[in-house]
Amino acid sequence: MASLPPCSVSKDSFLLSSKSFMIPPRTSTRTTGIYGSPLKFEKIEDTRLRFLGSVKTNPALRLEASRETLTSTQEVPIHKMESVEENDGRPDLFSDIKHRFLSFKRSKYLEKSDHFQKLAKGQAPKFMVIACADSRVCPSSILGFEPGEAFMVRNVANLVPPLENGPSETNAALEFAVNSLKVENLFVIGHSCCGGIRALMSMQDEVDSGSFIRNWVVIGKHARSSTQAAAANLSFEQQCRHCEKESVNHSLVNLLTYPWIEERARQGLLSIHGGYYDFVNCTFEKWTLDYKGSNVENGKYAIKDRAFWS
Ligand SMILES: [Zn+2]
């Protein structure tokens, strides 16, 4: 089962260097069975009650949520910006978040109230983004997506499961974005130092482990095997960097297993892009699946419009 890796791997660089790659035929990758450890309900209840208590004792938290104050000229009163330093002797973690929200409201929402009122009636984003849940890689922060510009789903290791895996929140979001919102671009974004990819590369076997993480990241097992084949002589860390990009390409191909995505791509109504954010060096690579230049039935895929931003 030969495959051409999408990346050339050297010690210092993991830039994509070939213009085409091949994905080996899939065997069943269905992952079923969820056996988590018991939830600690009493802890959850305790947290909920504490949160409700803070709202009751801090009516400002409710006031700022009111839509009645939304005018483009109105200033947010200064007294509402005052922070609550402590709550029952504990630091109020929401104090800073409250400031950020009010700052957003004043400097963006109220400044562009017409735009946001339009968004309240509906959305027409040009992008659907699939990114990792990692707190360091928020696409809106690093690529500047503003409200209304990108429909987004974030999961562990930014993976797109193939159709055969059945329902997940990722393909539910894809279905809505493609069939209802008619987005024109699907954009899968990987990143450096990805814990999900590390978990994938660390797996000794692919049986149901009872771990939600392992049972999820096993979606990328073909990316792992092609990485191990292409980068066997490299260190584990370097293999992880390689797989972070390889898994993006496999996700791009998995997107085409959904007939409603494949059809729109074939009609030229939908473009499929990959991206890779290196937050160690702060660089970004972007590439596009060349649907017309690919031979989907034979599992040969080409990429085009590669760019490297540094
Ligand atoms: Zn990640």
UniProtKB/TrEMBL annotation:
GO terms for molecular function: carbonate dehydratase activity; zinc ion binding. The keyword Metal-binding applies. Keywords: Lyase, Metal-binding, Zinc. It catalyses: hydrogencarbonate + H(+) = CO2 + H2O. Its EC number is 4.2.1.1. The keyword Lyase applies. Pfam families: Pro_CA (PF00484). Its cofactor is Zn(2+). GO terms for biological process: carbon utilization. Binds 1 zinc ion per subunit. Zn(2+) binds at residues 132, 134, 191, 194. It is an enzyme of class 4 (lyase). Belongs to the beta-class carbonic anhydrase family. Reversible hydration of carbon dioxide. This is Carbonic anhydrase. It comes from Macleaya cordata (Five-seeded plume-poppy).
